[in-house]
């Protein structure tokens, strides 16, 4: 039986991980530490038994130390981060504070409780990071491997690169038992509707423009969040201490193709379910029109990386990881989740004026 602390566990990927871990490891104790900022949501943890949500800031080292000591925590899964690139461009300070200072705070807490106290307790600090730390690829460049040189291009990716280096340093300098995973673009349930897939999905349902940066040919590797959670599970169970593992979805697609799949899947859903037209009367599909007419090209984002791609050779070979969904399958199930959970997302868009 493990005692796990999940930072950022009320956010998108963190909450999915908590649901995933509770279902597969019901004997483990789970504490969630989340500041409940705009992207953290108590409702993401509804229906879960045996999960204790503590509202708090990862920069509060005293709080982190108290939780680790009093709850006999042996595993930290560190998701908490500011993650939206556009927000990092307009307001980078929050990204440095949360992603760098906050990660250092958690590392200090782990070091003090697990190492300095002299207990010798087996432990794990697993740090969840991003493929964006590696920079941008050309059309024919090889995919990012764990040995790829870091070259972050946005304040977000630079802050995550800094946190990665701190985790590595705490292992090599102090002996903290760490692992790191760098993932590609996630999508799935509970994703805050500022990111491409939920934003475009909800815009399509409300007849709003689908704003496409530049020429729409920026390429990303798309990873369903449950496959990501499985990858983290494998690293926690069998990953080598001090190592980094890249986790991808094997779905390298240009944005235009992703948006095209969103449009086609929404159109198909309306054609198969007549009740959707009454629920979402402003959607083009409610009028028998193609969703793709909402496509609108806008000025490209500053410093927009052209291509990301993940080389999964290490995690596949060492740990047996394999994603279970291609993008059409994964998005179809994601659309179904959003259609079935409008009580979850309607308050978010009303509060945030996102669409």
TrEMBL record:
Its cofactor is NAD(+). GO terms for biological process: nucleotide-sugar metabolic process. It comes from the Bacteria. It catalyses: dTDP-alpha-D-glucose = dTDP-4-dehydro-6-deoxy-alpha-D-glucose + H2O. Keywords: Lyase, NAD. Transmembrane segments: none annotated. Its EC number is 4.2.1.46. CDD domains: dTDP_GD_SDR_e. One of its GO terms (molecular function) is dTDP-glucose 4,6-dehydratase activity. It is an enzyme of class 4 (lyase). SUPFAM superfamilies: NAD(P)-binding Rossmann-fold domains. Residues 5-332 form the NAD(P)-binding domain. Belongs to the NAD(P)-dependent epimerase/dehydratase family. dTDP-glucose dehydratase subfamily. This is dTDP-glucose 4,6-dehydratase. It comes from Sphingomonas turrisvirgatae.
